[in-house]
């Protein structure tokens, strides 16, 4: 049997019909098949393919993401951001003074000073300057998403006042991250109290949130096609559409006669003429009754026309990094040279640098990177790639340069959000000191919020039971499970109180899950799976007694310690961990604050973590 490794490129799909040249044998072998796929097959010249023989194709890997990374690197040479990408010092242009109290969107008034400064400074820079990269970073719970929304709303306000144009590309490495911000923007737009005119939004790619589905590009296109079908069948609809098109034609003709209103460059005039021609053709079709059912090539062309129109008129385009440069986006933005006010990348510290370069193929000249370089970076499996720095994000590379510059200069381009709203101050204290140079403040509401919570906010429980050889500590797992059960059975907590267990090793996770069962409503997960999430109570099972191993990474430890809102309980045998400088600092800090306890595996742990005033209420 001949086996050939090839690169397969799919160019077109179409339904199986009477006009398709499909082998009768294939129809019999695949009676449920519904599509015919046209594709090109790239193979080595010395390995000829017998086209007369039946061929079965097995997919090994989708390399489109890798191809996009290579394409982004290749096209970086023509990006307006080339110089500042390659050399951070080229990003050191002075910014004009901004009054933080004038011409602010009402939403900005609710932000704290560090958030407000980041929003107003970056928004003003994106509207008045170009060829710059702006960094916005801060600890978990500091309101990075709120800052992104504030930045978009501030730029929208400027657009409505005629102070600039607005077309924002909003990106993130994951669908979940994009959908989270997109839903907030939808809610803000629908809230009548905000008195915010409706900005046009569109979501590119696959959404994982049902609240977003109506604003995906595919769903908007389908609604427009349905309007076309309605016009076929309804005379009143036909008249209304004709009136709308006549008005659009008049507007386009006026813009063509007065190009100075929006700029008279050749590309603009060509685009204007294309729109005018398409509108005139649509009017002629309506008047002559030539509006007909679209199918085949005409349907594909109509879809492409609608996609371009929707993207041209969108104020906010949201997509994952891997999906932001496709044929739709390239045709609507890059090829038609439509300017983007800026590209905002959320969770930018979780992206490898080539991924962050993908949006630049659309002609981006202002890049806003949002994230936390003290959290986990992108996952890179190749040790050689790590050695050459692929794991490091564009954000981290630029921030490291800014950290060496005078603070006044750095603060103009690198904005630190210094107030966290998630953790009880006792939980946030050591991470602030060790990871964030003692610069993180806890909002004043956090301590009072936890006043009536039964557990102590921060406790480190040290035991002496050893782990087995397979990165699992049976006795520690049992201790953690018993503690969770006692918390649930104590009747001291609201039914809505959430509990999470974090452990760095899969075998320990499996052990705890098995012992815990499904009735406790507790999620057991790895450090990586908990990044970006939070719970009222977090129990951190460290496991390690032989060497530091997986727990030596400071970013991984930071993630584990910053997931809890009300109470963080760390459980472990720290004999080997305390040899590591980071862990030694954590343990010494806990001892100085008198929150470190020595416990035995058979001991009742709830009494060690409950607040003294609640102790007599334990069942």
TrEMBL record:
InterPro entries: DNA2/NAM7-like, DNA2/NAM7-like_C, DNA2/NAM7_AAA_11, P-loop_NTPase, SF1_C_Upf1. Keywords: ATP-binding, Helicase, Hydrolase, Nucleotide-binding. Residues 390-573 form the DNA2/NAM7 helicase-like C-terminal domain. It comes from the Eukaryota. GO terms for molecular function: ATP binding; helicase activity; hydrolase activity; transcription termination site sequence-specific DNA binding. One of its GO terms (biological process) is termination of RNA polymerase II transcription. Residues 110-383 form the DNA2/NAM7 helicase helicase domain. GO terms for cellular component: chromosome; nuclear body. This is AAA+ ATPase domain-containing protein. It comes from Graphocephala atropunctata.
